[in-house]
């Protein structure tokens, strides 16, 4: 293959390193790494040729090219041999038009990119297929580690455990004890990973796993590792493809460690650089108010994101106080004329419930994005005629406790305005009929 990609310092220090090297920081400045592609080589195919190629493969194949990630393999991890690829046919998720909810928010065109309808139920599959495939190849080439490992708020560990198990690689996950949902906890348990429950928060887990990686004990699977971002950027490519190779006016997404915000930027940037699209969308990064270090920095006009201690939020997957990818997110905001918005617990819960009432079943993180979108629309930053895509990051089926508590009015500090608890009725035709008639007026 004439295409190639390599690690390079995010801040621009000289030096390039192979993707199979276990490297998580720039050897010169200790900063973040990026993956760079040979754009000139990619330009030997025209924009139209790339579009046709991506469309031909999309959700069709041949295996594994039907995957939303590997269908774009030349843009993601060129040079990786077929037999190293560990895929669950991830990506290719639907982009659905949420007309009723859009109208409720005062928008003509609201789309939801359903990244949660993936193998392990979150967008984390997109990055993990790339990372596990590359480490699979590195291990064949002689890399020795005890395990592939991550700190996680739940979804990263679920994805890593599944892909590791598919490849037959040992996996260890570090989770903040009691701070992930039951479904998220049982996913790595079922896949046979070593599940370490630590009495700390995500940031505490991250500090330990980073040290294990620096000491060469484990291979680091957190999004500090830019291989994750290479897979996740295909969401941007899919969105453009699904909109007929155009870009929306806004992309709104919930953010914690801030890797996905940069991934979207990376995808839209590449589309534009290679001539498949004409412009960049604007970016709205949404945070939970109780875990909002980027929002605080952004509204204060600071380019350095000071860590906070993240408080308790229903949006557990973005409960992160010290986001690793903060410099990447700042760049994405700069390049995409971005904004940052934060939502309170009450706003998040009601946004989820209202969206659910229109047939969406939204995870609390997607609800953070929807709540932020509502605030941006009210302030006139997002306008009625704008075409808006909200990135839904996980399946709400992983967050049953949250849904149940909301409808039982059991969430602290939340009024549960749209609670819809079941009605207990005697098993009698006339009682059922009465109840139906009494409630019919309330059903909308
Ligand atoms: C990981 C995750 C996020 C946040 O992504 P970052 O790249 O950490 O900002 C949002 N929502 C869900 C459901 C997640 O699992
Ligand atoms: Zn550097």
Describe this entry's structure for a reader.
The protein has 444 residues and is of the alpha/beta class. It has helices spanning 39-42, 47-57, 73-76, 99-104, 124-140, 155-167, 182-190, 202-214, 226-232, 234-242, 259-273, 293-299, 326-335, 345-356, 364-378, 400-407, 429-440, and strands spanning 5-9, 16-17, 33-37, 95-97, 109-114, 147-151, 171-176, 194-198, 218-220, 250-254, 282-288, 339-343, 387-392. Strands 4-5-13-10-11-12 form a six-stranded mixed beta sheet, with helices on both faces. Helix 6 (155-167) links the parallel strand 6 and strand 7. The protein binds pyridoxal-5'-phosphate and zinc ion. Zinc ion is lined by residues 9, 11, 13, 26, 28-29, 31.
End-to-end gap: 56 Å
Q: Identify low-pLDDT runs.
A: none
Q: Please tell me the overall pLDDT.
A: 97
- Based on CA inertia axes, which overall geometry fits? globular
Bound molecules: pyridoxal-5'-phosphate, zinc ion
Write a compact overview of the structure shown.
The protein is of the alpha/beta class. The chain is built from 17 helices and 13 strands. The protein has a domain at 95-121 and 229-407: Rossmann fold (3-Layer(aba) Sandwich), CATH 3.40.50.
Give the tags.
Thr_synthase-like; single chain; Threonine synthase; 444 residues; binds zinc ion; EC 4.2.3.1; pyridoxal phosphate; 39% helix; binds pyridoxal-5'-phosphate
């Amino acid at each position: 293959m004439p295409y190639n990609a390599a690690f390079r310092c995010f801040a621009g220090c000289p030096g390039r390193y192979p993707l199979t090297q276990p490297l998580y920081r720039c050897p010169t400045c200790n900063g973040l790494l990026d993956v760079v592609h040979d754009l000139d080589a990619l330009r030997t195919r025209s924009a139209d040729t790339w579009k046709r190629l991506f469309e031909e493969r999309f959700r069709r194949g041949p295996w594994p090219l039907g995957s939303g990630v590997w269908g774009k393999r030349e843009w993601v991890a060129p040079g990786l041999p077929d037999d190293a690829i560990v895929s669950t046919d991830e990506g290719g998720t639907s982009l659905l038009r949420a007309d009723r909810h859009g109208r409720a928010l005062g928008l003509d065109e609201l789309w939801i990119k359903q990244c949660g309808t993936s193998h392990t139920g979150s967008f984390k599959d997109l990055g993990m297929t790339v990372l596990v495939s590359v480490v699979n190849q590195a291990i064949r080439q002689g890399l020795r580690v005890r395990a592939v490992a991550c700190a996680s708020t739940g979804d990263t560990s679920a994805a890593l455990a599944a892909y590791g198990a598919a490849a037959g690689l040992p996996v260890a996950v570090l989770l903040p004890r009691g701070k992930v949902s039951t479904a998220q906890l049982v996913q790595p348990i079922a896949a046979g990973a070593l599940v370490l429950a630590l009495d700390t928060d995500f940031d505490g887990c991250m500090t330990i796993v980073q040290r294990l990686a620096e000491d060469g004990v484990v291979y680091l699977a957190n999004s500090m590792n830019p291989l994750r971002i290479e897979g996740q950027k295909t969401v941007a490519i899919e969105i453009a493809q699904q909109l007929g190779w155009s870009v929306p006016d806004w992309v709104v997404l919930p953010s914690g460690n801030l890797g996905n915000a940069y991934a979207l930027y990376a995808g839209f940037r590449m589309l534009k650089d290679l001539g498949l699209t004409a412009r960049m969308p604007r970016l709205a990064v949404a945070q939970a108010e109780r875990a909002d270090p980027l929002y605080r920095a952004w509204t204060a006009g600071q380019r350095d994101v000071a860590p906070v201690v993240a408080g308790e939020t229903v949006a557990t997957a973005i409960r992160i106080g010290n986001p690793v990818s903060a410099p990447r997110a700042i760049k994405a905001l700069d390049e995409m004329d971005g904004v940052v918005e934060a939502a309170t617990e009450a706003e998040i819960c009601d946004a989820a419930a209202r969206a659910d009432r229109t047939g969406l079943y939204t995870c609390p993180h997607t609800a953070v994005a929807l709540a932020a979108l509502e605030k941006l629309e009210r302030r006139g930053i997002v306008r009625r005629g704008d075409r808006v895509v909200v990135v839904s990051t996980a399946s709400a089926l992983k967050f049953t406790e949250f849904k149940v508590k909301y409808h039982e009015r059991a969430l602290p500090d939340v009024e549960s305005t749209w609670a819809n608890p079941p009605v207990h009725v005697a098993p009698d035709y006339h009682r059922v009929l009465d109840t139906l008639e009494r409630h019919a007026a309330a059903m909308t």
